[in-house]
Amino acid sequence: MHFCRMKRIVVFTGAGVSAESGIKTFRDSGGLWEEHRIEDVATPEAWRRNPGLVLEFYNQRRKQVLSAMPNAAHLALKQLEEKFEVQIITQNIDDLHERAGSSKVLHLHGEIRKARSSIDPGLVYDIEGESLLTGDCCALGSQLRPHIVWFGESVPAMEEAILMTSEADVFIAIGTSLEVYPAASLLLYAPEQAMKVLIDPRASRDKAGKEFTIIAKTAGEGVPELVHKLLNNYV
Ligand code: NAD
User: Fold this and answer.
1) Is 97 a catalytic residue?
2) Which end of the chain is more exposed for a tag (fewer CB within 10 A), N or C?
3) Cα(118) to centroid of ligand 1, in Å?
């Protein structure tokens, strides 16, 4: 008897996959970091110095995410599950992959719609509505912080992401500048024989490596095209 296992597709997404949903990327012009300095809003030091400002920054981000909708790229990635085992690994803190219906989503950098205890990282809560406020506390009585991996903090999900990537038959990176580490190093763990694709209008072959096929299109255009090809031609 011959058993044929489903092909595994690992999709690694960055801010660019959500750009067409109206959520700003970090480094493009008009991006978030032109309006806010990383060290004021997205580091453990910023949290110690001015938690109110940090909470307000993420409250604004959360409001924006809640009003955004999944775009054609998120929806196409869900479709891939018709034929493949699909694991999404995202650097994004939004929940647009989940809302598009993707069933396996690993968040490397946290989730904007969750909060966690500032003394026990195991205590994680869903945030009801838009705001997390000064005085909102965990079960142990300490202030809740955004469930976000800040610059300078370790990335606890990295090990799991590496393992998933090392088992990929197809590895697709979408909308990422490949400048934030350790996340960007994930590309190195895709097996030699895997099909590797990078979709980004400003994709750089230097950063991705020569074994990557580059599709220099937006996610909304490039992802549905690739998904269509995989569903029809890849076995
Ligand atoms: P980045 O801002 O560094 O890079 C964005 C990339 O997306 C660029 O390479 C750009 O060319 C590309 N891009 C822009 N528009 C695109 C489109 N329509 N389709 C496809 N690609 C497009 O973002 P990054 O590489 O994800 O890394 C930076 C950090 O930004 C991550 O840690 C992530 O957590 C965070 N971030 C998340 C969100 C979100 O949750 N939606 C938004 C902004 C930033």
Assistant:
1) no
2) N
3) 27
Predicted TM-score of the model (pTM): 0.94
If you measure from the C-alpha of residue 200 to the centroid of ligand 1, how many angstroms do you get, rounded to a whole number?
10
Tell me the pLDDT tens digit for each residue of 9-26. Answer: 999 999 999 999 999 887
Domains and CATH numbers, the chain: 1-23+70-109+156-235 (3.40.50.1220), 24-67+110-148 (3.30.1600.10)
Helices then strands, each counted (H, E), the chain:
9, 9
pLDDT digits (tens, 9 = 90+) for 155-198: 999 999 999 999 999 999 999 999 988 989 999 999 999 999 99
Ligand 1 atom with minimal separation from the 20 CA: 18
Residue spans of beta strands (DSSP E) within the chain: 8-13, 85-90, 105-107, 110-117, 124-126, 144-148, 170-174, 195-199, 213-215
- The confidence score (pLDDT) of residue 48 equals 96
Length of the chain: 235
